[in-house]
Design goal:
Elements lengths: L23 H6 L15 E6 L5 E7 L1 H5 L3 E6 L11 H10 L4 E2 L5 E7 L2 H10 L1 E6 L6 H4 L60
Antiparallel strand pairs: 1-5, 2-4, 2-6, 3-5
Length: 205
């Protein structure tokens, strides 16, 4: 959009003003009600069973006991979510993140979900779902994850941007280089200060 000087000195009724938000007071005082604050007659309560492991193969999920619990209306796993991604790797990653299909890729990855008549019944149903995991090694540091010796999360990822196409999968999806200026310039005044070190932050749990 090009700048139009005709409007620079013009006063508007709303643009450039600070009107009072009609919902502001209710939100900051806690009076505002959101969708999650409403309960309707006959509504169901959903709860999600999540992996307690950071990296694990899912050998089997048995939901039969949860399905028989009185008050449980539905139980689903990834097997109930058809793969309609048609080979689109990015879309498959989204599908896999919604509910683990073959492996749990992080602590908290959803593996099953239930819908029940109330929260208590839903929580009981989660406890009845039996998941057989094969716990796999994992790392929690980005530098460790990039090493060739690191456990690979997704064996369909081959690092892009390399001179030679890799023959083994990696946790690094792509390598990109950016450059600007002359690194051999002798005038350090234009470069400023170089501060070596690690800029990573520890995970927050």
């Amino acid at each position: 959009m090009n700048f139009d000087p005709r409007f620079s000195g013009r006063k508007f009724a709303s643009v450039g003003t600070r009107p009072i938000r009609p919902d502001g007071v209710d939100k900051v005082t806690g009076r505002a009600r959101y969708g999650a604050d409403f309960n309707m007659a006959g509504q169901l309560v959903g709860r999600v069973l999540r992996s307690p492991h950071a990296h694990a193969t899912i050998r089997k999920i048995d939901t039969s006991k949860a399905e028989k619990l009185r008050g449980v209306k539905a139980v689903i796993t990834a097997a109930d979510l058809p793969d309609l991604t048609d080979g689109d790797a990015a879309m498959y990653d989204i599908l896999d993140n919604c509910m683990a299909r073959k492996k749990a890729l992080y602590d908290g990855h959803a593996v099953a979900a239930v819908a029940a008549v109330d929260a208590r019944t839903a929580r009981q149903a989660l406890k009845l779902i039996e998941v057989d995991y094969e716990v796999l090694p994992h790392v929690t540091d980005v530098d460790e994850a990039m090493k060739r010796s690191a456990p690979v999360l997704n064996d369909t990822i081959f690092t892009e941007g390399l001179e030679e196409k890799p023959s083994k999968p990696s946790n690094v999806t792509k390598r990109t280089r950016y450059g600007h200026g002359d690194i051999n310039c002798s005038s350090w005044d234009f470069i400023g200060h170089w501060v070596p070190g690690d800029r990573s932050a520890p995970p927050v749990g």
